[in-house]
TrEMBL record:
Location of the Acyltransferase domain: 11-339
UniProt-recorded Gene Ontology molecular function terms: acyltransferase activity, transferring groups other than amino-acyl groups; hydrolase activity
PANTHER family linked to this entry: ACETYLTRANSFERASE, ACYL_TRANSF_3 DOMAIN-CONTAINING PROTEIN
One example of a Gene Ontology biological process annotation: polysaccharide biosynthetic process
Name of the molecule in the record: Peptidoglycan/LPS O-acetylase OafA/YrhL, contains acyltransferase and SGNH-hydrolase domains
Source taxon at top rank: Bacteria
Membrane-crossing residue ranges in chain numbering: 12-32, 52-71, 92-118, 130-155, 162-180, 186-209, 221-242, 254-273, 285-308, 328-346
Pfam families per record: Acyl_transf_3
Keywords: Acyltransferase, Hydrolase, Membrane, Transferase, Transmembrane, Transmembrane helix
Gene Ontology annotations for the cellular component aspect, listed alphabetically: membrane
Length: 359
């Protein structure tokens, strides 16, 4: 996504596209095949079985991008920043929200309008159906936007260690909340308390990236496969030992898992952005397309999955290892095309209304 506040980095779009694809694959796998149950024996497919980890990558990227803008441009004008974020996020989110309250019209109450800002808490209308369920992350994201300029100012004043101290404070509060909350795993998964450190780690990764660019670190080819291997192993361990799909809520690993997850994805971001390895032109184009429409793809792919399953059902040639990639290709292509339609129709008209928010 191009911005007037920073030079366009196509590989950031690639990473956004990757995050959306992981979440799409996760939803396809469980909606078509595994019914949201843990699958510890398939730990080696953790990036699909527990593909909610794509949300962690999205959050790390948000912290990374805005911190990079701050580092390169200095002070952020709060009003213009929030105006831009509103124009970027809310047109499509409002559309999805009104779909959700229309579906649940018989249970709608006036106070439900407040869920526009708290779609990740309580009985949010968007969480009432599969086709709008992904919207829970938007409130977490927007709350981070609201505090980011102040965090950036604090980093400029207090130095890089400010963010690591915040992460430590959050970890202690997470530990306390773990012993108080009745469903701590879901709480740590879906609230700002559980996720804020992922944005902070993204911010720290931006500071490391700036230094890496100056010192020409991480350019060797092997850093990228090593970082991807670390993510694969980490998510695989989560899938095997403390799956989010498992019924057990008092799983102590979830106190630190979002932090570890963010560190793993930050490593991938740094390795990919710094590597000198070049992608083939066609793959580069596909990833840029996926990144451009990643927000629409993330919010709307569940509708395509749902309609496909209701009208046709999963394509089946008799073997899971053939059926899975076949459905990913066909339904994924359709959902990506729908996302592109949405991007140009519901998002693009508002993107031109944004303005520069840095000096």
């Amino acid at each position: 996504m191009q911005s007037s506040n920073i030079q366009y980095l196509p590989r950031l779009d690639h990473l956004r596209g990757l995050a959306a694809m992981i979440v799409f694959t996760y939803h396809l796998y469980h909606h078509f095949y595994h019914s949201w149950q843990p699958n510890p024996d398939a730990w080696y497919l953790g990036l699909m079985v527990e593909g909610h980890t794509g949300v962690g990558l999205f959050f790390v990227l948000s912290g990374f991008i805005f911190m990079l803008i701050s580092l390169k441009n200095g002070e952020i004008r709060y009003g213009d920043f929030m105006r831009n974020r509103f124009l970027r996020i809310f047109p499509l989110f409002l559309f999805v929200f009104f779909v959700a309250i229309s579906i649940g019209r018989n249970n709608f109450g006036a106070a439900d309008v407040l869920y526009l800002f708290f779609s990740n808490l309580g009985q949010a209308p968007t969480s009432g159906s599969f086709i709008t369920g992904a919207a829970w992350t938007i409130s977490v994201e927007f709350t981070f936007y609201a505090i980011f300029p102040f965090l950036a100012m604090a980093v400029a004043d207090k130095g890089a260690t400010y963010l690591s101290r915040l992460v430590l404070i959050l970890l202690l509060f997470k530990l306390g909340a773990y012993f108080i909350n009745e469903a701590p795993k879901h709480m740590l998964y879906s609230t700002l308390l559980g996720r804020l450190d992922q944005f902070l780690i993204g911010m720290m990764a931006a500071m490391v990236y700036q230094r890496a660019q100056e010192k020409r670190w991480l350019q060797q080819w092997y850093w990228l496969p090593l970082s991807l291997l670390a993510v694969w192993a980490g998510v695989g361990a989560m899938a095997h030992f403390f799956s989010y799909q498992a019924q057990e809520q008092h799983e102590p690993w979830w106190v630190i898992w979002p932090t570890l997850e963010a560190l793993l994805w930050a490593g991938v971001c740094l390795a990919y952005l710094c590597t000198s390895v070049q992608l083939p032109k066609f793959l580069n184009w596909v990833l840029e397309l996926m990144g451009q429409v990643s927000y629409s793809w993330y919010l709307l792919h569940a509708l395509v999955l749902w309609l496909w399953s209701q009208l046709l059902g999963p394509l089946s040639l008799g073997s899971f290892w053939i059926d899975l990639p076949l459905n990913m290709l066909v339904v994924g292509s359709l959902s990506l095309a729908f996302a592109k339609l949405s991007y140009h129709t519901l998002e693009e008209p508002f993107l031109g209304m944004r303005r520069r928010y840095t000096e």
